[in-house]
Design goal:
Layout lengths: L1 E2 H10 L5 E6 L2 H15 L5 H4 E5 L7 H8 L8 E6 L18 H7 L7 E8 L9 H5 L5 E5 L4 H14 L6 H11 L4 H14 L7 H24 L3 H13 L4 H23 L4 H7 L5 H11 L4 H20 L4 H13 L1
Parallel strand pairs: 1-6, 2-5, 2-6, 3-4, 4-5
Helix pairs in contact: 1-2, 7-8, 10-11, 10-12, 11-16, 12-14, 12-15, 15-16
Length: 344
């Protein structure tokens, strides 16, 4: 088993295997790597004739894949057969595909793939905590397994810098590192989307630290407003859905928790000041709230809670944070319980 960086180095040197299995939580990174591999093997004008794709999530039998592999390439030395989203490579119990029952047949064929064909599978993990299972390890001798973990550190910085370069923008090292620290843990698709937003936000001028902080704070606050708003409306399903969207988008669970706790703290203070007959401008000054729009939303939300409810919600946040730090628990489950308990 090799990592995505080693795969890239091997590809540059022309070291190409007969069969590959890409697995990991970052589908964007997997697809990029496969695209680079295909680019090394087949000329663009012959792609349609020598590149065959199958959807692994709906594949009923492996015979069609074998037939594609056995067919000779046309005006090319190689052909590529890709089975994408190959769910049968996972360990999920009760998976319906017939291929789950014929896994040994698939493993047997991997030893007999013709030299003219490059057979590729890719399997996307269900969550960031998933790891290669027994099935994947059983294939390690018969296929080159490439694990596509989400990029971190210098790898992520280099890739992000490339995203900016493609868009004709420069970003200084300090700003680049700040951006990457905020984006670490996201898939590359989400990272590229944020690069695009930042380029649009700073169009015609240099990218500054303040731009990055403002952009991330604005996005985060709006998302948390929505979660707390769902809680205030007793909409558990909506709150859980919004939380899942935040996690899917790459937000870290402890960060989501901190933002929810911060929001409840702010609502508590606003409600306390409102009950003390303070005016909007005075409250904004006391709490250092710069945006009138943001204040109006929070003031409206605060009216949907009593002080007792807000105080209880803050305590629930603190207890959840304590559990995450001191116990061996599933963080996502703890966050879901927090939402359930704040609505109860």
């Amino acid at each position: 088993m090799i990592d995505i960086v080693t795969f890239g180095r091997n590809l540059e040197k022309g070291h190409i295997e007969n069969c590959y299995l890409f697995c990991g939580s970052d589908e964007f990174l997997i697809r990029e790597s496969i695209k680079a591999l295909i680019g090394k093997l087949i000329k663009p004008e012959f792609i349609d004739l020598n590149y065959v794709k199958f959807d692994g999530s709906s594949l009923e039998d492996f015979d069609t894949v074998i037939n594609a592999c056995e067919t000779l390439p046309f005006m090319s030395d190689k052909k590529v057969v890709l089975v994408y989203r190959a769910s049968f490579m996972g360990e999920e119990q009760g998976y319906k595909s017939k291929l789950n029952a014929h896994f040994k047949d698939i493993q047997k064929y991997l030893k007999n793939v013709p030299e003219h064909c490059i057979l590729i599978f890719y399997y996307v993990f269900k969550s960031k905590r998933d790891k290669p299972g027994r099935k994947i390890y059983r294939l390690d001798k018969d296929i080159c397994i490439v694990k596509a973990d989400r990029m971190r550190g210098y790898q992520l910085e280099n890739r992000v810098q490339e995203f900016f370069r493609i868009r004709g923008r420069n970003i200084k090292k300090v700003e680049l590192r700040l951006f990457c620290n905020l984006m670490e843990g996201n898939n590359l698709s989400a990272v590229e989307n944020e690069v695009e937003k930042l380029c649009c936000y700073t169009y015609g001028r240099d990218i500054k630290r303040e731009d990055i902080e403002k952009m991330f704070l604005k996005n985060s606050e709006e998302d948390i407003f929505d979660v707390v708003n769902a809680i205030s409306n007793k909409n558990l399903k909506g709150a859980l859905h919004l939380m899942d969207e935040l996690i899917y988008g790459g937000a870290k669970i402890n960060y989501i928790l901190a933002m929810i706790e911060r929001q409840f703290n702010m609502l508590f203070k606003i409600k306390l000041l409102l009950e003390d007959k303070k005016q909007k401008t005075e409250i904004m000054k006391i709490l250092n709230i710069k945006s009138e729009y943001g204040y109006n939303i929070m003031a409206k939300q605060s009216k949907k809670f009593t002080l007792k409810q807000l105080n209880r919600s803050i305590q629930l946040c603190l207890n959840t944070e304590k559990n995450m730090k001191s116990l061996s628990v599933d963080e996502k489950t703890e966050l879901e319980l927090l939402l359930i308990n704040t609505i109860a």
